[in-house]
Task: inverse folding
């Protein structure tokens, strides 16, 4: 597959499954304790989103609307924060989140070949979850590991550098 890649939107079933893990009323008691720490409701947006994501697995469209209403802020503001911070997932995440650097240093050392190899091997586009649900693989801006370029990060778990298309695929396959 070749860039530019597009993301596969979540299905109605995936959205219903995530929303079904916890109603917003279930979340509200803990959210109330978070909001109480801040002088204004809207200032609690990041911790509130963290709790919603931990509870539902990812930030569903309903989560955006409910969070905005709960914090009394515009929906567009919540959407902007989710778009800006890559740690928030707006689609079902795999068991492990893999970030592949696509920024200049890595790109000059073959990052696009690594991305193409991962997309081809798993039959997905960057930003998608693998068919077995094991990984969500996304292209990312500089990971701060330029000395290991081209590189990728399994969030909170491992980092891989000096990648080739083959070693990138092998590294993830060995994480089963
Ligand atoms: S450019 Fe890839 S880690 Fe910095």
Result:
């Amino acid at each position: 597959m070749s860039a530019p890649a597009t993301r596969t939107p979540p299905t109605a079933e995936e959205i219903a499954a995530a929303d079904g893990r916890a109603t917003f009323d279930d979340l509200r008691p803990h959210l109330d304790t978070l909001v109480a720490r801040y002088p204004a409701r809207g200032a609690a947006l990041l911790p509130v989103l963290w709790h919603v994501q931990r509870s539902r697995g990812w930030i569903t469209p309903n989560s955006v609307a409910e969070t905005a209403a709960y914090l009394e802020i515009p929906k567009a503001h919540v959407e902007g924060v989710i778009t800006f911070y890559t740690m928030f997932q707006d689609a079902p995440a795999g068991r492990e989140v893999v970030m592949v650097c696509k920024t200049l240093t890595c790109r000059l050392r073959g990052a696009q070949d690594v991305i193409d190899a991962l997309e081809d091997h798993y039959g997905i586009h960057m930003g998608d979850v693998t068919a077995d649900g094991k990984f969500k693989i996304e292209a990312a801006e500089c990971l701060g590991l330029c000395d290991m370029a081209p590189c990728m990060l399994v969030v909170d778990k491992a980092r891989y550098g000096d990648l080739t298309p083959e070693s990138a695929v092998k590294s993830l396959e060995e994480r089963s």
User: Anything to note?
Assistant: The two ends are 24 Å apart (CA to CA). The chain has eight helices and five strands. The beta strands are 96-101, 128-129, 135-140, 152-154, 158-160.
